[in-house]
Here is the input.
Amino acid sequence: MDPHITSWGNSLMASLSSAMSLLFAAVPRVLGFLVILGIGWLVASLIEKLLVAILRAVHFDGFADRAGLGGMARTVQREPSGMLGLIAKWFVRLIVLVAAFDALGVPAVSQVLQQLLLWLPNLAVALVVLVIGGIAANALGDLVRRAAARSRMNSHEVLGTAARWAVWAFTILVAVNQVGIASSLVTILFMAVVGALALALGLSFGLGGRDTAGMIVRQIYERNRRGGALTGGPSLGTQGTRSRVGYTGVEHRHIEDRRSNPNGRRAMG
Here is the structure.
């Protein structure tokens, strides 16, 4: 037999033997991966159902509606309790995936999932901040609106809305910083928005209220001018008051002189 054919056959058999060895060695890891994945998926679904039941029992949906988060949750066709249940389910599933890929012997995927798991607590804190901030925003908006309505201000609805959105803007800034999504850029954008709003309010007040401000200044000026004319002194308020005090003092001394010398005018005559 040709030695080249013999060596080729031996090489092929050796390769097949190595491949079968690797396959049989990987079977336990694959089975472990599938078992961990199946059990973890089932446990995650059970945790979701349990959490949703607990949240509905404590009327969490109504609480979220008062915080202003119900509409955001319903945009994805879920109740707020269902949204939290979904987040909890995928949190558990990520933990299961980390364990499953470790059992499979793929550390790169496991490390990526671990980084994601370390980031999820920040997301949970950001959600809590949004809930608390939403409650505070609605409460402050209602308070400002009612106070402005009691003062008979025509723009009480606008003031309430502005107060509510101001609190929401601050809350979103804190939540984004907690999550860590381009925090420096978000801070710069927030400062720019606040500056633009302040400039817009200043310009609107200055341009819209210049007639009223001019009338107020003119009334103050006319009042001080009339007061100065009545006192016989300068037209400005402080000097006019001093002139009045001086005049009163002179008159008072003149009356005292007349009392001490009642015959003074006759003597002079």
Summary: Residues 26-105 form one domain. The chain has three domains: 26-105, 121-208, 215-258. The CA atoms of residues 135 and 196 lie 26 Å apart. The first helix runs from residue 3 to 57.
